[in-house]
Amino acid sequence: MTHTVLVTGVCRHIGARVAGALAADPGIARVIGVDTAPPPSPTRDGGLPLGRTEFVRIDLRTSDIARVIAAEDVDTVVHMSLVSGPAKSRSAMMEHNVIGTMQLLAACQRSATVRRVVVRSTTAVYGSSPHAPAVFTEDTEPVDVPHTGYAKDAIEVEGYVRGFARRRPDVATSTLRFANFMGPRVDSPLTRYFSQPVLPTVFGFDPRLQFVHEDDAVEVLCRMALEDHPGVFNVAGDGVLLLSQCVRRAGRPTVPVPSPAFEALGVFARNTGVVDFSPEQLALMSHGRAVDSSRLAAALGWKPKFSTAAAFDDFLRSHGIAGRWPLAMVEWLSGLMTRR
Amino acid sequence: MSEIPASDAVSGEDAQIIPISAARSASGSNGSGPQSADERLAELFAFLRRRVTGDYEIDEFGFDPELNDKVLLELIRPIYRHWFRVETLGVRNVPADSGALVVANHSGTLPVDALMMQVALHDEAHRAVRLLGAHLVYQLPVLGHLSRKTGHTLATPEDADRLLRKGELVGVFPEGFKGVGKPFSQRYKLQRFGRGGFVTAAIRAGVPIVPCAIVGAEEIYPKIGDFPMLARMLGVPYLPVTPFFPLLGPLGLIPLPSKWLIEFGEPIRTDTFDPADADDPLVVFNLTDQVREAIQHQLDALRLRRGPAFPPFF
């Protein structure tokens, strides 16, 4: 087997982990990592060891990617270069996400060697709405299509991926819609939110949240890079957590604010650079979202090792987040009452 | 703080939720044998400990069985028992552990009948009913998430199908706002049954339809008028005038203590149909009419059986 895998987005955490894991697989001949910025060095910046991954620094928005794919005899492409987090500007983020994907898919369409394309997407494409079904399957038509930010980019990216899959039916194209990543080293708007000392919530709403642990995400991406599973798949840990449950587990105090104020707070937080709170995140914090990931389980014969709750607890443990005073109060009361 | 081991998660959520709540309601409210005060206290603190640390499970629709059984139903039960003196009949028509669709008439200006039906099914049939609610409920703060926590969800074909296939007991009020907001003069006259979406869902999942008649809800807030302009401004389907509201202000919100009867009728089978029949409008219309007629008959008989709404006065 002469596998040459191209991984985009290796300067980000999940991308680096996938590249590292693929590089550790002896069945794969070469792993080529590309990104617009060099990956953080393992020794200086606490980056992850990428093993024998060959790094090529290219701007994804240019046609340089086509040259890499043509020159290096790439047969599998794992596209993870979707930016969700804080970007310098919205237009830069859109360009990176959408134009980057268009360039990559254009190169894949021309290539005679590419046999498999795996694209990272997000469950944010379903939006969050009080008018939508409680649980989304891959075939659910989104009711309120998100038209801002990352979710909109992801919808456009998926559109181009569908077009590519139609034009190149011989290439196994998989789209993975991941729930929010959670884990010790995940840095996302949501993990930053839960790291705050006081958590603002939207008054009168208690959204259902779903997480996928970074270990499971990496495993799914690696499996998809090695096997043909064309189609769209939801990836999420089992079960859901309510936001109220999350904050109780974190033991953090909450401040319920009415939703217009929450929005204003989000804009303020974004401008000050504390947390990136976009409109689609406001919708998530109001109405929540849950997806059905049984299609993935059936295709891979595999279940995530971490449930939503276990992934969140792992995140809390690794960050040392545990406010214990509510529990201490119950224990104190219990001691008081039973001593009598 | 307690952590859930990863292995717990793999075994599936429902398998855990249902036995836990069943066990608790058996040992708690039903009182299987005398419990010492110490045991009850210990149980209370165990409950509080779970609640403050978030160490409880909810299903994918947001149903929190522990909160529902131990707190919310406890709050509604006195109204069920002592205010409306609800009597529940035909409980044997509700399947004990498989999927079914309960279809009921809707009335009373405010959907109090949904709450009473929930208590009836929980206490008498030992089943958690999963009602399919209106969009409005899920848009509103507080109401939306309380509704999810008590096991209900938005009325969409996807959610109905998912719940029925999981073997849940799903409840619908096909009349919707037309039923709950109808004037007092129209009492006990069933309104149009939506577009028959509930029949489609039942045929597709192959579950029986259990017709349910609720008598008593019509008299709790007799709607004799409406403020259509104001209702439109507030974005609600209607703003009622009752003999006591808005005349007596908040006091007018106290429901009148009518006598209630809830009856579950003979299940109507749908497994005799081909699942493809769910897409045949004629089959759906006919079955919708059949269910509607069954409920109307049940309602008329049950109303006679109840007699006056406010015994011993009139």
Automatic annotation (TrEMBL), chain A:
Residues 5-236 form the NAD-dependent epimerase/dehydratase domain. SUPFAM superfamilies: NAD(P)-binding Rossmann-fold domains. It comes from the Bacteria. InterPro entries: Epimerase_deHydtase, Lipid_A_modif_metabolic_enz, NAD(P)-bd_dom_sf. This is NAD-dependent epimerase/dehydratase domain-containing protein. It comes from Planotetraspora thailandica.
